[in-house]
């Protein structure tokens, strides 16, 4: 059950992953980043999501260490995700990239390591590298990011280990209904990046109306909608009041009618690149 920030979903290999975490996309190295990660942990967050390409793994690691010191928690209490970038696809390159990420973070393992984008013709070799890290016990869980159904079908045609997680752009204008149904059938946990559509939905009248009924913010309504659909969510913020406010979503429930109305906002509209035609 989702009762608190520490509530977890069980991935198909038995690993517990928090339903709610902090994303740090576009947060640069420096005091603001370190403070955001530390603040999140002090405020009860147990999951931090970064990536090699964000260029901030060192600050994330520092923030984790400060948060653990302040709370008395141990490394095992925190779920840390990073991702292999497009320039590091391939068996040897991906394994080397994993070591680089660990060194920058100052950790000796990751809880979840993802392929960041489905680079055509390359992600299967990279997946073999992730499988080897997983089999060696170097990483607790492995998965993908920005994979569409056809990418997953293609990957799993040769895979020995099924991805545990798929992290994709997902918000009320891009509800990913087909991918969610597919993921549930396959036992792959879906995770939302940019769940608040980079703030573009915060003044939407329907969401404001539902927020008013529950005496919650629009952000809290959207994040609750994610959770009730069975989707892990990782909103990004660097401000303490937002970090704690975003997470205040465990004391109310949206009705079936409200859930349907929010899903009805879908326009299949993205703020990020399309996984079928990105060029980086």
Task: Please summarize what this structure is.
The protein has 280 residues and is of the alpha/beta class.
Description:
This protein has helices spanning 31-42, 57-71, 91-105, 123-135, 149-158, 177-186, 205-214, 218-228, 240-246, 256-263, and strands at 8-10, 16-18, 22-23, 47-49, 79-84, 110-115, 139-145, 165-169, 189-193, 232-233. The protein is of the alpha/beta class. The chain has a single domain, classed as NADP-dependent oxidoreductase domain (TIM Barrel). It has an 8-stranded parallel β-sheet, covered by helices on one side. The chain has a two-stranded antiparallel sheet with strand order 1-2. Helix 1 runs parallel beside helix 2 and helix 7 (205-214) crosses helix 8. It is globular, with a radius of gyration of 18 Å. The mean pLDDT is 97. It holds the Pfam family Aldo_ket_red.
Labels describing this entry:
alpha/beta, single chain, 40% helix, TIM Barrel, 280 residues, 8-stranded parallel sheet, two-stranded antiparallel sheet
CATH topology: TIM Barrel
Spans of at least 5 consecutive residues whose pLDDT stays below 50 are: none
* Range of helix content: 25-40%
Topology pattern, helix = H, strand = E: EEEHEHEHEHEHEHEHHEHH
Strand content: 15-25%
Radius of gyration: 18 Å
Structural class: alpha/beta
What is the CATH level 1 assignment? Answer: Alpha Beta
What would you call the shape? globular
Mean pLDDT equals 97
């Amino acid at each position: 059950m989702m009762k608190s920030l520490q509530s977890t979903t069980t991935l198909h290999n038995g690993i517990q992953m928090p339903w709610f975490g902090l994303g740090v996309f576009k947060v640069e190295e420096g005091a603001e980043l370190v403070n955001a990660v530390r603040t999140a942990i002090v405020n009860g967050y147990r999951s931090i999501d970064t990536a090699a390409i964000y260029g901030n793994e060192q600050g994330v690691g520092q923030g984790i260490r400060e948060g653990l010191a302040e709370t008395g928690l141990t490394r095992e209490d925190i779920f840390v995700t990073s991702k292999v970038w497009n320039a590091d696809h391939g068996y040897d390159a991906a394994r080397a990239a994993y070591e680089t990420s660990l060194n920058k973070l100052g950790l000796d393992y990751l809880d979840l390591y993802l392929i960041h984008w489905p680079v055509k013709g390359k992600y299967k070799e990279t997946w073999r590298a992730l499988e080897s890290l997983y089999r060696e016990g170097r990483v607790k869980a492995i998965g993908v990011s920005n994979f569409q159904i056809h990418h997953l079908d293609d990957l799993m045609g040769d895979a020995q280990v099924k991805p545990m997680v798929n992290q994709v752009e997902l918000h009320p204008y891009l509800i990913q209904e087909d991918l969610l149904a597919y993921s549930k059938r396959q036992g792959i946990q879906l995770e939302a990046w940019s769940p608040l559509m980079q703030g573009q939905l915060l003044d939407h009248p329907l969401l404001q109306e539902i927020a008013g009924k529950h005496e919650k913010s629009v952000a809290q309504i959207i994040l609750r909608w994610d959770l009730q659909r069975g989707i892990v969510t990782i909103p990004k913020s660097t401000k303490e009041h937002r970090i704690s406010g975003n997470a205040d979503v465990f004391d109310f429930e949206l009705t079936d009618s409200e859930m349907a109305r929010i899903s009805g906002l879908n326009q299949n509209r993205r703020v990020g690149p399309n996984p079928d035609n990105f060029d980086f």
